[in-house]
Write a structure and sequence with these properties.
By secondary structure, chain A is α/β, with parallel strands linked by helices. Chain A contains four helices and five strands, in the order E-H-E-H-E-H-E-E-H. By secondary structure, chain B is α+β, with helices and mostly antiparallel strands. Chain B has a six-stranded antiparallel beta sheet. In chain B, strands 9-8-7-12-11-10 form a six-stranded antiparallel beta sheet, with helices on both faces. In chain B, a hairpin with a 5-residue loop joins strand 4 and strand 5. In chain B, helix 14 runs parallel beside helix 15. The chains are: A alpha/beta, B alpha+beta.
Chain lengths: 123, 602
C-alpha cells in the first residue's frame, strides 16, 4: 500500500512541485495550504508522514507541529523551510528532520525515504 | 689775636697727637710728601706690615706689595640696602685685602687726606682693619642668598607632581652648589619596616667629581636648569652612585636590639635630623651602611608628615671631606619639612594618576564592549533581514528550479528545450548559492576550503571586470608575483570579496579616469592582497564605520557589501584593513594565511 505524505505549505507552486516529485517517488500525496488544514488532514486522512513549512500565515509551522504531535506523536514530521536559522529553535527538535528548501529536491526525497526506513525498522 | 678756638692740647706736637690717636684706634698710618715718598709710619703700620712701608719708599709701591684690591662682591644683589651698607663701610675709601703667610685674610679700608705744616704739603695714608664688618656683610649676603635658594627650591617642590620628579628635585637641591652643596645625596624610602635606597646622586669618585664640578663651574646652571637637564637626560644622572643607592637596605626595627642613640635609625625614629659619623655607630647594619657608602660622616634627615615617616635623606661630603656644619643641618631641617609635604603630595598624585588610568582603561573597555554589542545588534538585525529576504526569494526559486528539474528528469522535449531547462536549473542554482553565501553570512562557510592559487583567483575576477574598467577609461595596474601564492580558502568566498572591492574601487573613481591597483605579494609569512583606487578616498570620520553592516555612503547602497566582505575574509582566517598609499587614497589590504606551498604543488 502506498505511503501517504501530507505537504503543508502556503505557496501553491511549492505544493505543486513537491506533489509532482513525491508522486514520482511513489507516494500518495495530500496537500494543505495552512496549519488548520494540515491538522484536519492529519485527523481525517491519517498520513504516514508530514512535510511542514515553518512559515505560514495564521498558525505557523512550529505551532502546527505541536498540534500535530498532540494528535499523533508517532507521526514523522519533516520541516522544510527557506530559513536556515530555525534549526536552533528547540521546538523544531521535535521534528524528525529539517531540510532547507532547495530547487534540488534530492535531499528532501532522500530524507523522506530515510525517515520511512527508520520507522520501518522501529515498527 | 687768632679768631680760632685755641687748641686744648697745649704742648703736644702734631706728630705726637696723630701718633697717639692712630695707635689708639688701631689705624695703620703713613705720612708722605706730596709726591708720595714715605716720610714716617706709625707703630701699628710697622706691626701690621713689617718691613714693607719703609721711609723713602713710594707709598703706592708698598701698598700694592702689601695688599691687593678687594670688593664687597655684588652688593647690588642685595638691593638698595646692600649698596647703603657698602657705602657706609667704605665712606669714600677703597677696599684692600691682605693674605698672610698662614692664609688668613684681612680686609682694610684704605683712605688718604692731605694737610699742610709750615706751608709744606703732606699726605696722610690710612689702612683701617674692617675684617669683622666685611665678614658680617658676607654672612648677611650668604644668608640672603640661602634664603632665596631655599625659596627657589620650595617653589620647585610645589611645582613638581610625580614622586620620581620630587625625589630627584630633593636630591638635586641637597647636592647643587646653588642648594646645600653636599657632595652626594641619597633618598631611602620606607618599605614595610625597612629603609630601602631608591635614588642616589652625586659623583662616585674624585675623578668624576673633578669632571662634573669643573663642567658645572663653567656653565654655572641654576637649580631649575640643572633639574631641567636631568629630567631631559632621563635615567639616573650618576649611575655608579645610583647603583650604590639601590644596595641600601636597613632594618628600621632590629628585633630585640635597643636602638642606639646617635645612630641613623635613632634619628629616623625620633624624626630629628642628625650628624652621624662612622665612629659613632655600633650596630652592624649601620656600620655596613657607612662601609657601603664609603662615608665618614652623614647628614641624616628624616622626612615625616604628621609623625609618619615618608622617607629619609642622607647627604655626605665623601670627596671634599668638608665637615657637616650645624648650620647646614639646620637649613636641611627647614628644607625637609617642605620636602616631606611635596613627597606626600607626590605619593597621592601618583596614586591618583594610577587610579585615573584604571578608570580610563575601564572606560575604554566599556566603549569597546559597547561597540562590540552594537556590532552584534546590527548583525542580528541584518540576520533577520537576511532570513526574510532569503525566504521570500528562495521559495519562488525552489519552485522555478525544482519544476525545471522535474521536467528535465522526465526526459521529454527537444534537445534545445533540454538545454534551455538546464540553463534555468544552473542559473537558479547560482542564485540559490548567492543567497546562501551572502544572506547567510552570519554563519561561517560550510568549509569548502581548498588550496587555492590566489593569483589565479585574482586574474579570474579581474577578467570579469576588464571590459567595464576599460570602458570607464580607468587604468588597471595588476601586480602578481612570479611564484604562485597559495592559501587554503573557499575560492568562491575570495572571489566574492574581491569582486566587491573592485566594484567599490570602480564606483569610487566614478568614470572620471583614474587608476585601480590590484597587488598580490607574500609578506611576513602572509599573503597580502591590495585593492586600491585613486578616487577621492574615504573621509577620516567614517573610516571606522565602513565595515559596519548597513553603513553606506552610496545613494542606492545596501551597506552590506563591505560587511559581508569582512565576514568572508575573517571566515577564511584572514583580516582586512583600510589603508592608503599614495596615489591610492583608498587601499584595502587583505591578509590571508599561506598554506604549505610544497604540499599544494605536489
Amino acid at each position: 500500500m502506498k505511503k501517504k505524505v501530507l505537504i503543508a505549505d502556503d505557496e501553491v507552486s511549492i505544493r505543486r512541485l513537491y506533489e509532482r516529485e513525491l508522486k514520482k517517488e511513489g507516494y500518495e500525496v495530500l496537500t494543505a495550504e495552512n496549519g488548520q488544514e494540515a491538522i484536519q488532514q492529519v485527523q481525517n486522512q491519517k498520513p504516514d508522514l508530514v512535510i511542514l513549512d515553518i512559515r505560514m500565515p495564521g498558525m505557523d509551522g512550529i505551532q502546527t507541529l505541536s498540534r500535530i504531535l498532540e494528535e499523533n506523536n508517532e507521526l514523522p514530521v519533516i520541516i522544510s523551510t527557506a530559513y536556515s536559522s530555525y534549526k536552533e529553535n528547540f521546538m523544531s527538535w521535535a521534528a524528525d528532520a529539517y531540510v532547507v528548501k532547495s530547487s534540488d529536491l534530492s535531499e528532501l526525497k532522500s530524507t523522506v525515504r530515510a525517515v520511512f526506513e527508520q520507522r520501518n525498522v522501529l515498527l | 689775636m687768632e679768631n680760632r678756638t685755641p687748641s686744648p692740647f697745649r704742648g703736644i706736637t702734631h706728630w705726637e697727637f696723630i701718633d697717639n690717636l692712630s695707635r689708639t684706634l688701631g689705624l695703620s698710618l703713613a705720612i708722605t710728601s706730596s709726591d708720595g715718598r714715605i716720610l714716617w709710619i706709625n707703630e701699628p703700620m710697622q706691626a701690621e706690615f713689617p718691613g714693607l712701608f719703609i721711609p723713602g719708599r713710594s707709598l703706592a709701591e708698598a701698598l700694592n706689595e702689601a695688599t691687593s684690591p678687594d670688593t664687597f662682591g655684588f652688593p647690588y644683589l642685595l638691593g638698595p640696602f646692600g649698596e647703603e651698607m657698602a657705602h657706609q663701610v667704605l665712606r669714600g675709601g677703597t677696599l684692600r685685602r691682605r693674605v698672610s703667610s698662614t692664609g688668613a685674610v684681612k680686609v682694610f679700608r684704605y683712605f688718604h687726606f692731605s694737610f699742610a705744616e709750615d706751608l709744606n704739603p703732606y699726605l696722610a695714608h690710612c689702612l683701617l682693619d674692617i675684617t669683622p664688618e666685611k665678614q658680617l656683610f658676607e654672612t648677611y649676603r650668604n644668608n640672603l642668598h640661602q634664603l632665596s635658594s631655599m625659596k627657589e627650591m620650595i617653589d620647585l617642590l610645589y611645582e613638581s607632581m610625580g614622586t620620581q620628579v620630587v625625589i630627584n628635585l630633593i636630591l638635586v637641591a641637597v647636592t647643587a652648589r646653588e642648594g646645600f652643596g653636599f657632595n652626594r645625596a641619597f633618598f631611602l624610602e620606607v618599605s614595610g619596616s625597612r629603609l630601602r635606597g631608591r635614588l642616589g646622586i652625586g659623583p662616585a669618585s674624585a675623578e668624576e667629581a673633578h669632571r662634573i664640578w669643573s663642567r658645572l663651574a663653567q656653565s654655572n646652571p641654576s637649580l631649575r636648569e640643572t633639574l631641567h637637564f636631568l629630567s631631559k637626560a632621563g635615567g639616573p644622572p650618576d649611575p655608579a652612585t645610583q647603583e650604590v643607592a639601590l644596595k641600601v637596605d636597613l632594618p628600621l626595627h632590629a628585633e630585640g636590639i635597643a636602638v642606639q642613640p646617635g645612630g641613623i635609625i635613632h634619628a629616623c625614629i625620633n624624626r630629628k635630623p642628625a650628624r652621624v659619623t662612622r665612629s659613632s655607630v655600633s650596630s652592624s647594619a649601620e656600620q655596613g651602611l657607612f662601609q657601603l657608602l664609603g662615608s665618614e660622616a652623614l647628614a641624616v634627615v628624616p622626612l615625616s608628615i604628621r609623625d609618619r615617616l615618608a622617607g629619609v635623606l642622607l647627604a655626605d661630603n665623601h670627596i671634599t671631606r668638608k665637615p657637616i656644619a650645624e648650620e647646614d643641618l639646620n637649613l636641611l631641617k627647614t628644607f625637609s619639612g617642605y620636602a616631606a609635604i611635596a613627597l606626600e603630595r607626590s605619593y597621592l598624585h601618583d596614586e591618583l594618576t594610577r587610579n585615573l588610568e584604571k578608570l580610563r582603561q575601564a572606560n575604554r573597555d566599556l566603549q569597546a564592549n559597547h561597540q562590540k554589542l552594537m556590532h552584534a545588534e546590527k548583525l542580528s538585525a541584518l540576520g533577520e533581514l537576511a532570513a526574510y529576504v532569503s525566504h521570500e526569494i528562495r521559495n519562488p526559486l525552489v519552485a522555478i528550479g525544482g519544476l525545471a528539474r522535474s521536467i528535465l528528469s522526465e526526459g521529454a522535449g527537444s534537445e534545445e528545450s533540454k538545454e534551455v531547462l538546464n540553463i534555468i536549473v544552473s542559473e537558479v542554482q547560482r542564485l540559490e548559492r548567492f543567497l546562501k553565501e551572502t544572506l547567510d553570512f552570519v554563519k561561517p562557510p560550510a568549509g569548502a576550503f581548498k588550496a587555492t592559487n590566489l593569483g589565479e583567483v585574482i586574474r579570474e575576477v579581474i577578467n570579469t571586470f576588464r571590459d567595464e574598467i576599460h570602458r570607464a577609461r580607468i587604468e588597471l595596474v595588476l601586480e602578481l608575483p612570479d611564484q604562485p601564492v597559495v592559501s587554503s580558502v573557499d575560492p568562491d568566498f575570495l572571489r566574492g570579496a574581491l569582486s566587491n572591492l573592485i566594484k567599490n574601487a570602480q564606483e569610487a573613481i566614478d568614470g572620471s579616469g583614474g587608476r585601480i591597483c590590484v597587488v598580490l605579494r607574500e609578506q611576513a609569512g602572509l599573503a597580502e592582497i591590495e585593492v586600491g583606487d585613486t578616487g577621492p578616498g574615504i573621509p577620516e570620520e567614517i573610516k571606522g564605520l565602513i565595515f559596519e553592516p548597513f553603513f553606506t555612503t552610496k545613494k542606492d547602497g545596501t551597506g552590506i557589501g563591505l560587511a559581508i566582505t569582512k565576514q568572508n575574509i575573517c571566515s577564511l582566517g584572514g583580516s582586512i584593513s583600510l589603508e592608503s598609499r599614495p596615489p591610492y587614497r583608498t587601499l584595502f589590504k587583505i591578509r590571508l594565511p599561506i598554506s604549505n606551498s610544497q604540499a599544494v604543488r605536489s
